[in-house]
Description:
This protein is mainly beta. It is 11% helix and 28% strand. The protein has helices at residues 93-103, 153-164; strands at 8-14, 21-27, 61-68, 78-82, 85-89, 116-124, 175-184, 189-196. Strands 3-8-6-7 form a four-stranded mixed sheet, covered by helices on one side. A two-stranded antiparallel ribbon has the order 1-2. It is globular, with a radius of gyration of 20 Å.
Amino acid sequence: MNSFAEPVTGSYTKSPKGTTTSMSSAKTNRFTAPSASTTSSRNTKTGSPPKTHDETGEWPVHYEFLIPGTPQALKRHRTYRFGNKNINVDPSSAAKENFLLQALEHRPPEPLREALAVTLQFCFARPKSHFRGKSSTRLKADAPHWHTGRPDVDNLQKFIMDSLNGTFWHDDSCIASIKAEKIYHAVPGIHIRIEAASDPSVSSNRTEP
C-alpha cells in the first residue's frame, strides 16, 4: 500500500439563510506525516462534530489528531486458573487506559453512531543504523521509509480500536472502512483520522456491485 485514499479537508461556513452548514473542501494527495502539534476537526461554533454530509455530497473529516509516543500493539489475553475458575486477564488494559486519557481531549461530545472510515499512521523512531554516523542527522541512501519489523500492523490497529471503542464511536461495528500504515518518522506517534464513510448512494451514477 503506497498511499491512503485522498482525504477530504475543509472549513465550515454558514449558508446565506443561516440555517444549515455547508463545507468548502480541498483535497490532499495522501495522508500527511504528523507534526509535533495535534489538531481536531469539529464544528467550532457548537463544539459538535460536523454533519454526516452536506448538500453538495462532501464528506467532512470529523476528527484528526496525533498521539505522541511509540505505537503499542495489543497483547493477547491470558487465562489463569484459580481453583475451579478461569480468569481472563488483559495485559494491555493499563496501556489502553493511558492511551485513551491522552486522546480524550479530541473525543466527540458523544460516541459517533454513523458509518465511519478510520485512517491510522503508526510512526516509529529510526534506529541509529539508518544514519550516516553516530552523531549525524543525515540518513543513509538506503534508509527505508516503511517500518517492516514488529509489531505487526494488525495488532497495532487492534490496540487503537480497543482503546477508542465506546468513547469515539458507539461500537466497533460502526467502522465501515479502516486503513493503516507503519513508517519511520522524526516524531514517533499515532496519527489518527476519523471521518464519515463515503456513501455511493449520493452519486447519480450509482450501480449495485
